[in-house]
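To whoever is on call:

I kicked off a structure prediction for a single chain this morning and the downstream step that reads the tokens threw a length-mismatch warning. I double-checked the sequence; it's 166 residues and nothing unusual in it as far as I can see. Pasting both halves so you can look.
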Amino acid sequence: MNAPDKAIEGAETAPDATLRQFSGYVMKRAVAVVRNDINAALTPLGLRMFSFSALVVIVDNPGLRQAQLADALAVERPNVVSVLDDLQSRGLVRRGRAPGDKRAYALEATEAGQDLCRQALQVVTEHEARVTHGLDEGQRLALIRALSIMEQTGRAPAGREDDDES
């Protein structure tokens, strides 16, 4: 194994220097920063990272079924039920029977849900600027591309990821 990258300031003297040579470890630490910041930003809107993600996917895909939402968010199907219950009880989402399948629910954002989604997207845009402030636009796009490649080549089965609500 190579020594930690000396170009990362302070990495060679950090107590976790050996771990910092692994992308997964560095990503885990970065995700903690991202999760804390996004949840703090969304809390005034009554959302968290997972509920925000669900709302955006529902707004972008009217008529989406619950199972499709779970697949899109890469979570177990039962895990979306409590988030949908919350969004529905707040008048942000409607569940109706899916056309052609009385066992499935089709999801639609209400006008209030669409309004909240627009507000949340602005908040998340500001969050994105905060957490990527050390990157220029090319680096930010390269990061997204690199993470997307990692996701596609190492795709875990749905529901195996850490809970985004923590």
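Update from on-call: the warning came from a stale cache, not from the record. Cleared it. Sanity check on the structure: The longest helix spans residues 111-131.
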